[in-house]
Amino acid sequence: MTNSFVLLLFFLTFLEHGLFFQRVSSLGINYGQVGDNLPPPNKVLQLLSSLNINKTRIYDTNPQVLTSFANSNIELFVTVENEILPSLVDPQKALQWVTSRIKPYFPATKIGGIAVGNELYTDDDSSLIGYLVPAMTSIHAALVQTGLDKYIQVSTPSSLSLLQESYPPSAGCFRPQVAGVMMQLLSFLRSTKSPFWINAYPYFAYKDSPTKIPLDYVLFNPNPGMVDPYTKYHYDNMLYAQVDAVIFAMARLGFKDIEVGVSETGWPSKGDGDEIGATVANAAVYNKNLLKRQLHGEGTPLRPNMSLDVYLFALFNEDLKPGPTSERNYGLYQPDETMTYNVGLLSSSSTSSQSSTSTNSFMSITSSASTVCTNTGF
């Protein structure tokens, strides 16, 4: 074989196995620690650096992690645990939290955001949501007082259970029982120029309705997709439809200018007998296809020129997580740092050029629509 042919085969082999990596500014990964066999933070830092991942989200302010990630190129998105949220409504306690949990590590450790709680509203529990915006306000005030507000954003990841309707995306609206809190939250996010974060899992929709929702549609595989009957936007995957449903829900409350990011999305590689679709093959396809789109800097049909920030869930399988088997099997890696499957973080110098899409239909729908949802289904 000629040298050029050998080089071509070598290159194609690398592409097939995902051995080339490119840093993607819009991509992060969730680093959960609910396990008794996970590698130490310094090893995790080495793994993330080898993957050219430059953003990660943790679910606390673990001092070992914050110390280990000092003087690295990886930005941390830290979390205020749900159980301490009520106490941080008090401005003095919020200041104490910032001065003890954040300030000692910054700027050596790149802390770019604080998640105040995680999924405070679910179908089963909404007891903490009333503390959310007051706690966020107190924490932001503490950042201002310590001179850190210019560097660290304050937001909160929400589940899609906040939505009363999500299909079609233009029908997106919030549940009436959270509309008041959403007005306060969105006002805060607008005033501080912070994003609205959502945890979005197309897997759950497919698991619940596998005969109605096409697998290729949720996995980003080629498929006919769906067209929103009101905006005429074409959706070839569920994640983008879910994001746009949230954007429409915000617009119905008068907030059309807030960025939306995905703080969690992923697919389990193993599940219980009734967890349809939880397989290694589907997990690999979902994450690989999403990563390809991240490499191209894609936006959603509603915001095609704004790349979508996404945090994959999760870095490791976590053996102590409660719940069904799937909860312990979202990791791209096993605790021994071997790959659960190859996600194929491929190197690419190409970027997709997004065509400018008219927002006239978005403006007309959201300006004339009531905040009350109509009953529509998938």
TrEMBL record:
<keyword id="KW-0326">Glycosidase</keyword>
<keyword id="KW-0378">Hydrolase</keyword>
<protein>
    <recommendedName>
        <fullName>glucan endo-1,3-beta-D-glucosidase</fullName>
        <ecNumber>3.2.1.39</ecNumber>
    </recommendedName>
</protein>
<dbReference type="InterPro" id="IPR000490">
    <property type="entry name" value="Glyco_hydro_17"/>
</dbReference>
<dbReference type="InterPro" id="IPR017853">
    <property type="entry name" value="GH"/>
</dbReference>
<dbReference type="GO" id="GO:0042973">
    <property type="term" value="F:glucan endo-1,3-beta-D-glucosidase activity"/>
</dbReference>
<keyword id="KW-0732">Signal</keyword>
<dbReference type="Pfam" id="PF00332">
    <property type="entry name" value="Glyco_hydro_17"/>
</dbReference>
<comment type="similarity">
    <text>Belongs to the glycosyl hydrolase 17 family.</text>
</comment>
<dbReference type="GO" id="GO:0005975">
    <property type="term" value="P:carbohydrate metabolic process"/>
</dbReference>
<feature type="signal peptide">
    <location>
        <begin position="1"/>
        <end position="26"/>
    </location>
</feature>
<dbReference type="InterPro" id="IPR044965">
    <property type="entry name" value="Glyco_hydro_17_plant"/>
</dbReference>
